[in-house]
Design goal:
45% helix; alpha+beta; 18% strand; 316 residues
Length: 316
């Protein structure tokens, strides 16, 4: 079981919006806080990233930078230019809506940037990527596959067609995996405070593999400890240190994530879903689901569908 792959399959990028920005001369674009994260990929030329309180960051061709949800920031052609006009703002909003190219600056385009906004599945609460909360810059030198991924994404956005939304979501998931690999290489000793850091602890990682491989199994702290060949006390201590919660709390959280997605995206009966995520009876499942989501499964499904949130395009 590849725990990261499984977690991203369930919680990965959904509804990604992308636009190809072509700029030359003096140009700047300020992006207001957005509920989803921002991903900027430079396919040609050089871009400068501006985040309040931080130093301007140069991002070159083949590089990518990931910013956490709600981060206001600017991208520009130089280390001090971050202004944009009202017409630029309108053009940006329009381009992100319809996927058309965005042209900025007063000279022929020398820089091309893929500007993406994406959100992880809103029904999933497992914090897979919280370790990447601060702006993270990855260069093509650190990850040899990054440039190939950038080329693939550039080609997909340059000529949108049937299936582009699903393709972009999948490529963004691939980019996220590449960011994770670089993060793990940069932080080889970090084992606590984040889901990714927990992957460094072999005891916690083995326990997570068990849970993700068989969420329907009646896991307890004792059975997980036995499966990972450690004592109950050791597993509880290592789990709390790495993730800030008990093994039982994590099992419940992951089961509720899986159930929420299935309630939204399928017509499976609640009885079927309850067994698939490890509950012996629909009543026990409904009680646990109400505690986690504030309403019974049937009402949750009805509310999501009345809000138009069924089967998100590009979802797994």
């Amino acid at each position: 079981m590849d725990v990261l792959a499984e977690a991203l399959r369930v919680s990965g990028a959904r509804g990604a919006l992308g636009v190809v920005l072509k700029a030359g001369g003096t140009w700047g674009l300020w992006l207001e806080p957005y509920p989803g994260a921002a991903l900027h990929v430079v396919s040609r030329g050089t871009m400068w990233l501006h985040v309040p309180g931080g130093k301007p960051l140069e991002v070159r061709a083949g590089d990518a930078v990931l910013l956490s949800p709600g981060t206001a920031h600017g991208i520009a052609g130089g280390p001090s230019s971050t202004t944009m006009s009202a017409c630029d703002r309108q053009a940006t909003d329009q381009a992100l809506t319809d996927g058309s190219a965005l042209h900025l600056g007063s000279a022929p385009a020398e820089t091309e940037v893929l500007v993406l906004r994406y959100a992880q599945d809103p029904e999933v609460s497992t914090p897979v990527l919280t370790s990447l909360a601060r702006p993270m810059h990855v260069t093509s030198r650190e990850n040899a596959q990054l440039r190939k991924t950038v080329e693939l994404l550039t080609a997909e956005l340059a000529q949108p067609q049937i299936g582009t939304t699903a393709a972009v979501n999948s490529i963004v998931d691939l980019l996220l995996i590449q960011f994770v690999r670089v993060w793990l290489a940069r932080h080889p000793e970090e084992r606590s405070g984040s889901w990714l850091g927990a992957m460094r602890d072999p005891v916690v990682r083995d326990a997570l593999e068990c849970v993700h491989a068989r969420p329907e199994h009646p896991w307890t702290t004792e059975s997980l400890a036995a499966a990972t060949a450690v004592s109950r006390t050791t597993l509880s201590r290592r789990f709390r240190s790495a993730l800030g919660q008990t093994p039982g709390a994590y099992v419940t959280q992951w089961r509720m994530d899986l159930a929420s997605v299935r309630l939204r995206d399928t017509d499976e009966p609640v009885e079927s879903i309850s067994g698939a995520v490890g509950y012996a009876s629909p009543h026990a499942f409904s009680r646990a689901f109400r505690r986690a989501r504030g309403m019974p499964p049937g009402e949750y499904r009805s509310r999501l569908r009345s809000d138009g949130r069924q089967a998100i395009p590009g979802g797994s």
